[in-house]
């Protein structure tokens, strides 16, 4: 599988997230406060909640329902009630295109 265009970079706003789906995989595409773009699994591991509807705080994305925050770089939960990480996907920026390959995850070490 190859990386697919999921949105335009100009569609993203700082400190916000959007939900996209690539080959049946729900992904939250996030622009953090530094302007860096991240892609993590969109479903909170504590409940079946879209993380893209949550809150971006620095380098984390917080689930609006129960408050678990996930690291945008590792996918690891930063607080309870979630204790399982979400996948983190490699992002490529090509001009104004944001590309993601849902088959390529970044290591979470």
Automatic annotation (TrEMBL):
<keyword id="KW-0408">Iron</keyword>
<dbReference type="Pfam" id="PF00355">
    <property type="entry name" value="Rieske"/>
</dbReference>
<dbReference type="InterPro" id="IPR036922">
    <property type="entry name" value="Rieske_2Fe-2S_sf"/>
</dbReference>
<keyword id="KW-0223">Dioxygenase</keyword>
<dbReference type="GO" id="GO:0051213">
    <property type="term" value="F:dioxygenase activity"/>
</dbReference>
<protein>
    <submittedName>
        <fullName>Bifunctional 3-phenylpropionate/cinnamic acid dioxygenase ferredoxin subunit</fullName>
    </submittedName>
</protein>
<keyword id="KW-0001">2Fe-2S</keyword>
<keyword id="KW-0560">Oxidoreductase</keyword>
<keyword id="KW-0411">Iron-sulfur</keyword>
<keyword id="KW-0479">Metal-binding</keyword>
<dbReference type="InterPro" id="IPR017941">
    <property type="entry name" value="Rieske_2Fe-2S"/>
</dbReference>
<feature type="domain" description="Rieske">
    <location>
        <begin position="4"/>
        <end position="100"/>
    </location>
</feature>
């Amino acid at each position: 599988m190859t990386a697919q265009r999921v949105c335009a970079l100009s569609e993203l706003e700082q400190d916000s997230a959007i939900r996209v789906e690539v080959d049946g995989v729900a992904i939250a595409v996030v622009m953090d406060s530094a302007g860096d773009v991240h892609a993590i699994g969109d479903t909170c591991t504590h409940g079946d909640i879209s993380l893209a509807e949550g809150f971006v705080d620095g380098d984390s994305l917080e689930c609006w329902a129960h408050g678990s925050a996930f690291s945008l770089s590792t996918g690891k939960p930063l607080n309870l009630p979630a204790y399982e990480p979400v996948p983190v996907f490699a992002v490529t920026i090509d001009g104004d295109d944001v590309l993601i390959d849902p088959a390529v995850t970044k290591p979470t070490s």
